[in-house]
Design a protein that fits this description.
The complex is a heterodimer. Chain A contains no helices and 8 strands. By secondary structure, chain A is mainly β. Chain A is elongated. Chain B is of the alpha+beta class. Chain B has 2 helices and 9 strands. In chain B, the strands form 2 sheets. In chain B, strands 1, 3, 5, 6, 8 and 9 form a 6-stranded mixed beta sheet that branches. Chain B starts with a helix and ends in a 5-residue tail after the last strand. The chains are: A mainly beta, B alpha+beta. Chains A and B meet through strand 5 and strand 6 of A and strand 6 and strand 7 of B. Strand 5 of chain A pairs antiparallel with strand 6 of chain B.
Amino acid sequence: MATPKPRVKVPAKATKGEIVTIKTLISHEMESGQRKDKEGKVIPRKIINKFTCTFNGQPVFSCDMAPAISANPYLEFTAKVMESGTFVFTWLDDDGSTYTAENKITVS
Amino acid sequence: MNLTRRQALALSVGATTLAVLGVSTPRAWASAESTEKAIKEFTGGATPATGRITLDAPEIAENGNTVPISVSVESPMTADDYVESVTFLAEGNPNPAVATFHFTPLSGTATATTRIRLAKTQNVVAVAKMSNGSTFVDTKLVKVTIGGCGG
């Protein structure tokens, strides 16, 4: 499978104290460990089990995921911004690899 | 035996259905009880109250592979009073756990959306835990046309 590609939508600008909506999507098949292949063998589980979002190092939102999350996990949540800074998004895979994305926001 | 085309087709369909049913092995599915247990684990034994939390899910989900669900909890989201986490449970899935959202005062609102898999028509439960320890629950019945667990 191709390397999961994260996509994040964060507004570029906001006013101080504004609550912004953040949308994230990552391409990942989220193999549930329930399916079987043609020979009837169970396909081993491989999902993204944790997502975190931080703003200037402070935790904003995180999510523990189970196999019941759809393929290409989509998450939408909000953040309150008081200053300009960087959002860091991290996805943690079952196999130990992490995928990250960064987005800057300018607060006026 | 002479078969008409129609009969032959009907037979082959029947045989395929039997074969499909035959190979599926029984699995331990989640149930209302195991969901109840998971709720208790999350709340630390307390029975969550209703209200303040709103779970938004479609009444009918055509494709159980991607069912959009969103949750919002009424809360001022200040440093002393905010929503700590919200967990989703699906009563009719192989495993009731779906996802747990963790909020912080920086989240601004306790609102989030994701897409989940549902194996069949079932209740989806969302439980919120506040920073002061109180818990709230909301349940929605989602009718699933095509299940989303494969196998």
